[in-house]
């Protein structure tokens, strides 16, 4: 998957190498969550009982790898600072493919103007509520306060990848980043 390949390379370049046998775990999970990032162990958990399709698993892996990347590069305070969590959830919803038009149609959510941002905001709030015992108002306030900055932070993709083709281009650009900068 080009999304995962790019994120794994970005993690490596940031000094945080990921080992498949150490940093990924398949488990049965409660509720309807599909995965999670455990900051204490730097481990991505895939909920095998809630993932039914390869495309869904790819999105979950990408979403959680974005959290791992944020953990590596930004030293996120996952447990005490809800704004940090909100920022990473915004980035994960924005960059992982969670809010592509096709996924939204499959959820029976339609809209054109500003729909991607609305989806990102809603999914970030849902994710915060799934992992922290905070009120909906607290989650909404945290998302609103950091939304613009975090929505516009496109690292390591450099763009919002709306398709696998976009993700492949982003990966190619990421691989060539140093060559471009060396010529400046």
Task: Give a verbal description of the structure.
The protein has one domain. The chain has eight helices and three strands, in the order H-H-E-E-E-H-H-H-H-H-H. The longest helix is centred in the middle third of the chain and has 21 residues. The mean pLDDT is 87. Keywords: Hydrolase, Metal-binding, Metalloprotease, Protease.
Main β-sheet, spatial strand arrangement: 1-3-2
Helix content: 55-70%
Number of strands: 3
Report the C-alpha radius of gyration, rounded: 16 Å
- Averaging pLDDT over every residue, what do you get? 87
- Give the N-to-C terminal Cα separation: 31 Å
Overall morphology: globular
What kind of sheet is the major sheet?
A: 3 strands, mixed
Derived from helix and strand composition plus strand pairing, the structural class reads mainly alpha
Protein name: Mitochondrial inner membrane protease ATP23
EC number: 3.4.24.-
InterPro entries: Peptidase_M76_ATP23
GO cellular component, one term: mitochondrion
Short description:
The protein is mainly alpha-helical and 184 residues long. Helices cover 59% and strands 7% of the residues.
């Amino acid at each position: 998957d080009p999304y995962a390949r790019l994120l794994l390379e970005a993690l490596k370049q940031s000094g945080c190498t990921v080992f498949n046998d150490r940093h990924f775990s398949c488990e049965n999970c409660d509720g309807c969550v599909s995965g999670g990032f455990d900051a204490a162990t730097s481990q991505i958990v895939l909920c095998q009982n809630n993932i039914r399709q390869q495309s869904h698993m790819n999105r979950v892996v990408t979403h959680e790898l974005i959290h791992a990347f944020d953990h590596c590069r930004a030293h996120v305070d996952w447990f005490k600072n809800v704004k940090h969590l909100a920022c990473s959830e915004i980035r994960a919803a924005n960059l992982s493919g969670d809010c592509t038009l096709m996924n939204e149609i499959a959820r029976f959510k339609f809209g054109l103007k500003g729909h991607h941002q609305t989806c990102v905001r809603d999914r970030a709030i849902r994710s915060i509520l799934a992992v922290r015992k905070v009120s909906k108002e607290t989650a909404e306030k945290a998302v609103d306060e950091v939304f613009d900055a975090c929505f516009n932070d496109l690292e390591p993709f450099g763009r919002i990848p709306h398709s696998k083709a976009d993700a492949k281009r982003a990966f190619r650009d990421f691989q060539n980043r140093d060559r471009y900068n060396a010529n400046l």
